[in-house]
Cysteine--tRNA ligase
Amino acid sequence: MTTIRLTNTKTRTKEDFVPIDPRDVRMYVCGPTVYDRAHLGNARPVIVFDVLFRLLRHVYGADQVTYVRNFTDVDDKINAEAQRRKSLGDPRTLEELIRERTEETIRWYHEDMDALGAMRPTMEPRATEWIGAMIAMIQDLIASGHAYEKEGHVLFRVRSYKDYGKLSGRSVDDMIAGARVEVAPFKEDPMDFVLWKPSTDDLPGWDSPWGPNNGRGRPGWHIECSAMSHELLGDSFDIHGGGIDLQFPHHENEIAQSACAHPEGSFARVWMHNEMLQVEGKKMSKSLGNFFTVRDLLDKGIPGEVIRFVFLSTHYSKPMDWTEEKARQAETELAQWRTVTDTVDASEVTVDTLLALSNDLNTHGVLTELRRLFRQGDHGALKASAELVGLLTPEVAWDYKKQHVMFVPLTIYNKVLDPIAAKIVQAREAKDYATSDRIRDAVIAAGYEVKISKAGVEITPTEHADPAKLEALK
Ligand SMILES: Nc1ncnc2c1ncn2[C@@H]1O[C@H](COP(=O)(O)OP(=O)(O)OP(=O)(O)O)[C@@H](O)[C@H]1O
Ligand SMILES: [Zn+2]
């Protein structure tokens, strides 16, 4: 059986992945807070963990892998949007408006992530459906001295958990010095974080054992993931994932809660974090306002498969940018691959594809292998290997005869252009620059742009392109 190796953030090393139970491999990934459309950065963990899900299914069997990704549907940002609608005169109750907001956001999320070819996780629990489990877990934490109630709030006593900070490699004192921890009168220690907080009558709330008004309140964000992962995956499971921005405090807090409530278990064995999609060196985020949504790109006509390809071209552990140039190149390659695999049956995933992917999800290496298969004309293997990373599948099919990313309206003249590009490369390799220049000039005269670089020769039609003039050059 293939050995998968994954970089475990907890140990900071690449480790052989050994599932607790190979017949039931279990993964939890922190999902979105459903208050608005997903931005392109939010799509990165979806694609990264979709690729891992596909690999696990390939290695252990499609029915032997459970992937849970939650929806956080209780949050101040959701309430704020509902309140905004109410203030604009919507006659419905705040509860109805909140429900409407979360429902529509979940629907959008599914539509957008489906368009990127991401498989739906096995289970997608909503926080509001698991409040009972959260309350029970908080009660256990209070009973064992790891949490306390004060003024209707319940707080986790961070100093009661000696390993706090291990995941992110920080000491509690460093964290206090460096972090934006909220100092509040109801906290014994500034590091303590909220497990439960009171709710007013007009905001979403559930009865609880804590505080006045039947303890009407709502859970803190961190306890949601600890409770839902425990309910659905048990005391110990294999992989926990999310973006690196969640490592501290969210994941640190999840670990503290789960380890203290279920000391008999090991919670997640492997922690994996994807790096950020950036815009000019900064994390793409709602709060910085430097974002565009997945839907913006799809509406521009950029195929979801192209977006997926661009993400796969950078390793998940490296920051990356979105550029139109990357999208254009991705589209060109995918169009070529789709042209040759369209009527071909998938054969077998190649050994090199599996080796690259099993090596800590080296998706860039997989693309290199796919290029090799394309060049060698091994189209059945190209299709099978591409499908393993969610490319060339029917779910993300698009009209590849039409160009989408460039704004010049054109068809892709691969069949003519490829042999001409190859001739230029051959002439240059033979140092016959007179011939390569002659062909290049003729191609330009036919209305094409020619880019020659170390990576190869790229010919793209301009709006004046006249394919008939190329026939003689073939
Ligand atoms: N720029 C980014 N690049 C990669 N992953 C990201 C980026 N921004 C958020 N994520 C990830 O998206 C997932 C959903 O996060 P969440 O719903 O908390 O995001 P958000 O609150 O909409 O984002 P923001 O960080 O923009 O406020 C998390 O796994 C998070 O790590
Ligand atoms: Zn989480």
Remarks:
- The chain has three domains: 5-277, 323-398, 408-474.
- The radius of gyration is 26 Å.
